[in-house]
Write a structure and sequence with these properties.
The chain folds into two domains: 201 residues, Jelly Rolls (Sandwich); 107 residues, Arc Repressor Mutant, subunit A (Orthogonal Bundle), CATH 1.10.10. 40% of the residues lie in helices and 24% in strands.
């Protein structure tokens, strides 16, 4: 039985596993989940094992390398809540350095490149949290980002909501596919976990910035993002965006995948969703259909689904929550 999170054993038995001794296969596996990164195996052999439950933009991973390994990752565009189940994981980023011992938890902010050094016994559960989900819990504006202090906590802090979330995930992983369409109960459990993270860790709202290692991001990414932010409601084709950024469509797509972990169209959609949420939270309007159309969404069903995926609640629930506050 897992010494930290007992419910994880039952869940892991129903999830597909990628297991390999080939570092290239291991790296490509995590490239698809998180972002392109570098992997150096320092031990004599690799025994990589990764299990994934995808919940749309968010996900839960169970990961080990089975060898000393160093991971060098770029600045990510999401939060990464890490709970170390066994072994030790060294973590180094700009401005801080720490060791994640077994039983500890740590949340990595977006926009920060980092290095992780795994020992042979290290195993972690990783929760990928979309930026918009946390922003939605604190009613951050489009130009603000929640930034956590780089502090290590006891994983026991998150036991109850993690147990509840894992328990509710049981039904949707029974087919072994590793993909789950989140139910309202699952989203509610996720929100409880996010609220606990916000309560447990010092944090602040900071003005949006490119990355902590901004010099590594190509100029054309900045140009494209500035254009998307300037015209959040416009449906811009990738070819047009690439021309405005001064590169080919292929270069633009590959650049966004490498440095942002998403496509230009996904970022454009999220900007439109952020604007819709801002309107709903500020009470400028309450007609969800009109707001969706005004923000560039012509298919209302997809708008509602994408909104719930990004913020963990429906547009109507946002309106009701604003009225209660």
């Amino acid at each position: 039985m897992n010494p930290v999170i007992p419910e994880l054993d039952a869940l892991s038995r129903r999830l597909p596993m990628t297991r390999t001794g080939d570092a290239r296969v291991a790296r490509r596996c995590l490239d698809r989940v998180f972002a392109r990164h570098a992997l150096e195996v320092r031990g004599s052999s690799l025994d990589f094992a990764h299990q994934l439950l995808s919940l749309g933009e968010s996900s839960i991973s169970l990961l080990r390398y089975g060898s000393e390994a160093e991971v060098v990752a770029p600045a990510l565009d999401f939060y990464l809540l890490q709970m170390t189940l066994s072994g030790r994981v060294g973590l180094r980023a700009q401005g801080f350095e720490t060791v994640l011992e077994a039983g500890s938890a740590f949340i990595m902010n977006p926009n920060i490149a980092y290095r992780k050094l795994w020992d042979r016994e290290a195993q972690q559960i990783l929760l990928k949290i979309p930026r918009g989900r946390l922003a939605g819990r604190v009613a951050a504006t489009l130009a603000e980002t929640v930034e956590f202090a780089p502090e290590t906590l006891s994983a026991t802090t998150f036991f109850e909501p993690v147990h509840q979330l894992l328990d509710r995930l049981g039904d949707c992983t029974s087919d072994g596919s590793g993909h789950c369409r989140p139910t309202a109960a699952i989203r509610a459990s996720e929100n409880e976990l996010l609220d606990l993270v916000l309560a447990a860790l010092p944090h602040r709202l900071v003005a949006g910035r490119e990355t902590a290692a901004g010099h590594a991001v190509p100029y054309y990414i900045w140009r494209a993002e500035r254009h998307l932010r300037a015209s959040p409601n416009a449906m811009v084709k990738t070819a047009t965006l690439a021309r405005l950024a001064g590169v080919s469509a292929r270069t633009l797509q590959e650049g966004f995948q490498r440095f942002r972990g998403r496509t230009p169209s996904q970022i454009a959609r999220d900007l439109r969703l952020d604007r819709a949420r801002s309107v709903l939270l500020n009470g400028v309007g309450e007609n969800v259909t009109a707001i969706a159309l005004d923000c560039g969404f012509s298919h209302l069903g997809r708008f509602a689904q994408s909104y719930a995926e990004r913020f963990g609640e429906t547009p109507s629930q946002t309106i009701r929550r604003r009225r209660r506050s």
